[in-house]
């Protein structure tokens, strides 16, 4: 889908052609307009950002806010106060779409109270033609719509909207160039997501991601390393490498580099203390990666390995390209190499054609793999995916019953597994002052589990040894210990 215009394009001949210079030009143009308008109003212009969905979206929104801050907008967490509202949407499951439509009604009311308000929608949901059609038809008050491939163009699109006064829609079908070096407003000073690749080539039959995020594109290792070095120089101690399928990183580069090799190079960065990554696809998980992890001082002992289903028959219909036995074999290898590894997963219940027998296979894998935690989802039919046209959709009441049984098992095992580190001393990255008790701080173990212990804000962003004194199910209470102890 390309942009459809019913107005004359303004003259942008002064704008540089090359990126990111072009976007910096538009950031300065928007800034002039923002300054002028806030001068007239006698107050700053405010932006409210909402992000739903995965870590990839969270990172995208940091980029959007980086651009808007440089253009002069000030952030607000009150939607009612905003002059610009920007929703970064998800469409992995249908309920996410419904929520956005629900909120749009509310935004329409806000716009009536504040005519200044501009509404921008972006992200995965906007990549779906039927969504854009619905917005054009029934939500005319929306100002700006763009997709996942052109978020870097926010300043240019917003400028176009501000000077034409027309709804601007720009959604690209295919992959775009990867534009480096645009501003980013990071949520945390001490940890950051880092995109290593975009898109997905797997076409799992239930999943809409390959349609809305396009084909796999890996960033150059040099660009990734440069970004991480810069982040470290700014105080970041933990990075989360992001991709839909990080295990296939680098395959499409001019000089291919494996994910394991990339990790080896990132490990060398001085000052970086923790490396995380997500998400892995079991079919691409190499022995080399397990070995790099095992030997690493920095890669966290946490692996998110989506199972989706434990039935080989359903896995085949899902186009996952591994069997129940192969999945369990990988789990065995990971746990043998790293006995302290925390293993988490995603599971879908009620995929078309799933019988009680298939479901029991999933329960069996959950019992055998003993995941520390699992995200469980009810299958959601996504228009345009192969599974949506499969005939034998499972009746709702059966799905609900299976979902409840699965959740109970996952929670029971999670509870049994959690607490296994009680009594030990672990390194903790302190993230914030405890929300319930300001004499306590909250931090994260390498395996991603939370710990609360006495401390103050001065500890935020540091990695310190903490004795896990008590397990409380899914988190620990602890005590900071001094080095001598
Ligand atoms: N229905 C339900 N869950 C889904 N996921 C992806 N697509 C669907 C769908 N159509 C889940 C998968 C994936 C996670 C991010 O979302 O489990 O791993
Ligand atoms: Fe979707 Fe499968 Fe790609 Fe994950 S690997 S984003 S589930 S298609």
TrEMBL record:
Free-text cofactor note: Binds 2 [4Fe-4S] clusters. One cluster is coordinated with 3 cysteines and an exchangeable S-adenosyl-L-methionine.
Domain Radical SAM core: 186-416
Domain spans labelled TRAM: 419-482
Entries under HAMAP family matching the protein: tRNA_metthiotr_MiaB
Binding site for [4Fe-4S] cluster 2: 200, 204, 207
Gene: miaB
UniProt xrefs under PANTHER family: CDK5 REGULATORY SUBUNIT-ASSOCIATED PROTEIN 1, MITOCHONDRIAL TRNA METHYLTHIOTRANSFERASE CDK5RAP1
Sequence similarity: Belongs to the methylthiotransferase family. MiaB subfamily.
Keywords: 4Fe-4S, Cytoplasm, Iron, Iron-sulfur, Metal-binding, S-adenosyl-L-methionine, Transferase, tRNA processing
GO cellular component: cytosol
Keyword Thylakoid attributed: no
Subunit structure: Monomer.
Protein name: tRNA-2-methylthio-N(6)-dimethylallyladenosine synthase
Pfam families tied to this protein: Radical_SAM, TRAM, UPF0004
Residues covered by the MTTase N-terminal domain: 45-163
Subcellular location: Cytoplasm
GO terms of molecular function: 4 iron, 4 sulfur cluster binding; metal ion binding; tRNA-2-methylthio-N(6)-dimethylallyladenosine(37) synthase activity
NCBIfam families in alphabetical order: miaB-methiolase, MiaB/RimO family radical SAM methylthiotransferase
InterPro entries the record matches: Elp3/MiaA/NifB-like_rSAM, Methylthiotransferase, Methylthiotransferase_CS, Methylthiotransferase_N, Methylthiotransferase_N_sf, MiaB_methiolase, rSAM, rSAM_horseshoe
EC number from the UniProt entry: 2.8.4.3
Xref: SUPFAM superfamilies: Radical SAM enzymes
Superkingdom in the source lineage: Bacteria
The species this protein was found in: Cuneatibacter caecimuris
Main location group: cytoplasm
């Amino acid at each position: 889908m390309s942009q459809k215009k019913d107005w004359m394009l303004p003259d942008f001949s002064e704008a540089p052609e090359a990126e990111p210079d072009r976007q910096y030009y538009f950031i300065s143009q928007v800034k002039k307009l923002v300054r002028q308008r806030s001068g007239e109003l006698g107050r700053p212009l405010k932006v409210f950002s909402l992000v739903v969905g995965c870590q990839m979206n969270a990172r995208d929104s940091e980029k959007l806010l980086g651009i808007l801050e440089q253009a002069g907008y000030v952030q607000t967490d009150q939607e009612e106060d905003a002059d610009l509202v920007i929703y970064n949407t998800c469409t992995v499951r249908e309920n996410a779409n419904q929520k956005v439509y629900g909120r749009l009604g509310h935004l329409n009311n806000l716009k009536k109270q504040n005519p200044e308000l501009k509404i921008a929608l972006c992200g995965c949901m906007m990549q779906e033609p039927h969504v854009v059609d619905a917005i054009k038809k029934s939500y005319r008050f929306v100002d700006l719509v763009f997709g996942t491939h052109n978020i870097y163009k926010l300043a240019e699109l917003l400028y176009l909207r501000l000077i034409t006064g027309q709804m601007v829609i720009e959604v690209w079908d295919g992959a775009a160039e990867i534009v480096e070096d645009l501003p980013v407003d990071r949520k945390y000073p001490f940890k950051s997501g880092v995109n290593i690749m975009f898109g997905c080539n797997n076409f799992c039959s239930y999943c809409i991601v390959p349609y809305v995020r396009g084909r796999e594109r890996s960033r150059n290792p040099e660009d990734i390393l440069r970004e991480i070095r810069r982040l470290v120089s700014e105080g970041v101690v933990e990075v989360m490498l992001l991709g839909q399928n990080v295990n296939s990183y680098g395959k499409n580069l001019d000089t291919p580099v494996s994910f394991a090799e990339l990790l080896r190079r990132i490990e060398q960065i001085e000052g970086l203390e923790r490396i995380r990554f997500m998400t892995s696809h079991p079919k691409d998980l190499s022995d080399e990666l397990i070995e790099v992890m095992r030997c690493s001082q920095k890669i966290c002992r946490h692996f998110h390995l989506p199972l989706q289903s434990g039935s080989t028959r359903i896995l085949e219909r899902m186009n996952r390209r591994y069997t129940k036995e192969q999945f369990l074999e990988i789990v065995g290898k990971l746990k043998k190499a790293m006995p302290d590894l925390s293993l988490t997963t995603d599971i879908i219940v009620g995929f078309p054609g799933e019988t009680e027998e298939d479901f029991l296979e999933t329960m069996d894998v959950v019992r055998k793999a003993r995941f520390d935690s699992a995200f469980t989802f009810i299958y959601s039919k996504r228009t345009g995916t192969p599974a949506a046209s499969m005939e034998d959709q499972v009746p709702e009441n059966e799905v609900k019953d299976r979902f409840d049984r699965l959740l109970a098992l996952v929670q029971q095992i999670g509870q049994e597994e959690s607490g296994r580190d009680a009594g030990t001393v672990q390194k903790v990255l302190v993230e914030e002052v405890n929300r319930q008790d300001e004499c306590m701080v909250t931090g994260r173990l390498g395996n991603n589990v939370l710990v609360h212990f006495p401390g103050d804000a001065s500890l935020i962003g540091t990695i310190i040894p903490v004795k896990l004194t008590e397990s409380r199910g899914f988190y620990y209470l602890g005590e900071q210990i001094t080095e001598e102890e």
